Amino acid sequence: MIILGVDPGLRRTGFGVIEAQGAQLRYVASGTIVVPPALPLHGRLKVILDNLREVARDARPDQAALEKVFLNANPASTLLLGQARGAALCALADCGLDVQEYTALQIKKAVVGTGRASKEQIQAMVRRLLSLDGDPAPDAADALACAICHAHCAPLAGRLQALAPETLSAGRRRLRTGRLVS
Question: Any idea which positions bind Mg(2+) 2 (predicted)?
């Protein structure tokens, strides 16, 4: 399974492509889409949309994973990030990809083992998990981490979804964000 991970941002959008065969992960490609700051908002969103479409068409992933928006102290920044995410979602949907979303906490736990991991720790673990020669750029590392998180979580989520009808009918359990809760 080839997975495209995306770390959306209005200034820099990271992307990372990995191949997952069971527990084996293999690096395919990664990079950063740098958006010219002089462009108006609609032009910046179009740069993200067009470049992610091109990445998806070149890499031909089977699935995509996207980092969810976190809430800032600054609501305007959160709204702008949401618009960048929207452009990324549209690009991935336009390429016919199934997109799963993960919070930064979920990604950090899946890759580093703690939700309080630093950027440097994420870069180091991505380098180690994918057997890279050096640390990837921060935005590309975040996108690769998102893809790794999906590679680890998707098989379990699929099994839970398959079990959901019989498990959920047995009592007060339900699925919430890919977890079985009572």
Answer: 67
